[in-house]
Amino acid sequence: MNVTFPDKLNQLADEVAEKGYAVIDDFLLPQEVEAILQHDDFKSSLLQFKKAGIGQRGEKQINAEIRGDYIHWIDRTTAHAPLLAYLSKLNELMVFVNRSLYLSLKDYEVHLTVYPPGTYYKRHLDQFKKDDHRKLSVICYLNKNWKENEGGQLRIYRTQGAIDVLPQAGRLVCFRSDLLEHEVLAATRERMSITGWILDQHADLRHL
Ligand code: OGA
Ligand code: NI
Asked: What is the CATH number of domain 5-199?
């Protein structure tokens, strides 16, 4: 069966409404993942990326005991075509979810992410105490042929118990930022993703 992109958005909206999260395979096609991986930002990632902090600007702290990833915020005015193609799909997702779930999401903020082997992100919620504008967390993975024994699962804590998601290339995970605690388990190989949040306000000046 050939599952179209609108079918996938439909499935995503249904699952987010029902359970608070959705896992969608092949949100990005293999050639789209490949094009993003060829991008300069990922080639020299650890040199260019900044160590991610916790908390908001001003009170941001780097705490490797809580999270060990490196991030690079995507600037829409300078991003290369393969990333713009991803942002355009994310925009379609936002418009679709607004229509089908009667939300008024307005914008998104997105960064590239690299977890070096052995690093992790302890259990947390994606909303900050003083900023509840992040409504949906949306992560797309870029790791080809990820094996279960390589670790790196996204563990989502639900009331009925946790579920683990492997960071498989092209797979997208979307969940309620205000509701679902989650963590990233350590992996034996580098773990790459595009991490974003759909906001109920405009993203200008939030991070750039
Ligand atoms: C985050 C996060 C999950 C993942 O960046 O806040 O929880 O699977 N990421 O990378
Ligand atoms: Ni998170």
From this structure: 2.60.120.620
